[in-house]
Amino acid sequence: MKIPFRKALRPVRHKMRQSLAQAVDIKTVEAAFAHANDPVLFGTQLADLLAGVPQSALSIVNDRVAAYAFLAHVGNLVKLFNINFVIDAGAHSGQFASTLYGYGGYKGEVHSFEPVRKYYDILSTYVWYYSGWKAYNAALGAVPGTSVIHVGGGHGGTSSLLGQTENLLRFAPDCALGDTEEITVHRVDQWFGEVLADPEKRVMLKLDVQGFESHVLDSCGEYLSRINLLQVEMSSIPLYQTQASIGELCARLEDGGFALVYVCNNFGVRNSVFIRLPISEGAEG
Fold it and tell me: Is the dihedral of CA 272, 278, 283, 285 positive or negative?
C-alpha cells in the first residue's frame, strides 16, 4: 500500500517540533501548547511551567489558559452544529485553524485570510499539513480591491485597517500600529457565494479583525443568514477609530437571528460565539 507523501512526512515533522520544543526548554505556555504531543502532555508541561512562574505573571498565564479552554469549547460547538466549512478572517500565523484541526478534531475545510505578508508567509508553511486548509494573503471587507493596513508592533496581533485610538497606546504600547502595507480585500459574498448558497455546507465565520468586524459582516450581504456559527472578537473599549462597539455588534447579530452562547474575556476583549437560530437546526442531541 502506498502512503501519500504528505502523510509520510507527518511523523518526521512531529519529531522536529518535539526537538524544537526541547531546544527552547518549554519556557512559555505557547511553546508548551505548540509542541505538546497531546493535551495530557500539555497539561503536565503547563504544570511544570506554572511551578516556576512568579506570582505577578500568573494573571498573564491564566489569560492564555482561558484562551485555550475557549478554543476547546469552540471545537465542541463546531462538532455539535456539524460545521464543515470555516471562513477564518484574521488568521495571523494560523493559530485558530491549527488548533481546530489538531485539538478539535475538525475534518472539514478552513479558508484562512491574513493580509499582513510576514504573517501570511508563516501561515502558508502550515496549511499543507491539513488537506482542507487553504490560505489567502488578503483581508475580508465590504469594499473589494486594494487598501492599506496598519501593522501592529510586538506579536502583530493588533494589525488593523483602522487607525488606533489612545486606548490601544495606553493598554498595549508595545503593540502600537506602525508601518503600513498595501493589501487586497475580498467580499465574503463574492468569494464564497456559491458555497454559502449550498444547503449542504454548514458554515462558521471566525472574525479576529481588530475593529473591522462590521465591515466583514457587511461583506456577507444576503449570505449572512447562511452563517450557522459565528466567532467574533469584540472590544469592550474602543481600541480602533470608528470601530463598532460591543453593544452595536451584539444588537446587530441578535437582530440578524443569532444567539450568544459563549463569551471568553481576555485583555478588555471578548471572544464571543453566536449561533444561528433556531438552535435545533443541524445540531445533534
Answer: positive
Residue 144 has pLDDT above 90, yes or no: yes
C-alpha span between 234 and 82 (Å, rounded): 25
C-alpha 204/C-alpha 84 separation (Å) is 8
Assess contact for 249 and 243: CB atoms under 8 A: no
Q: Is 185 helix (H, G, I), strand (E, B) or coil?
A: strand
d(CA 277, CA 254): 10
Task: Name the residue type at position 145.
Answer: G
- Which pTM value belongs to this model? 0.75
State the maximum Cα–Cα separation within the chain, in Å, rounded to a whole number. Answer: 61
Three-state SS at 164: strand
pLDDT tens by residue, 22-34? 434 444 544 555 5
What residues contact 191, with CB distance under 8 A and at least 6 apart? 140
Helices then strands, counting H and E runs in the chain, come out as: 10, 10
Which pLDDT does position 33 carry in this prediction? 52
Which segment, 44-53, 168-177, 219-228, is predicted with the most confidence on average?
A: 219-228
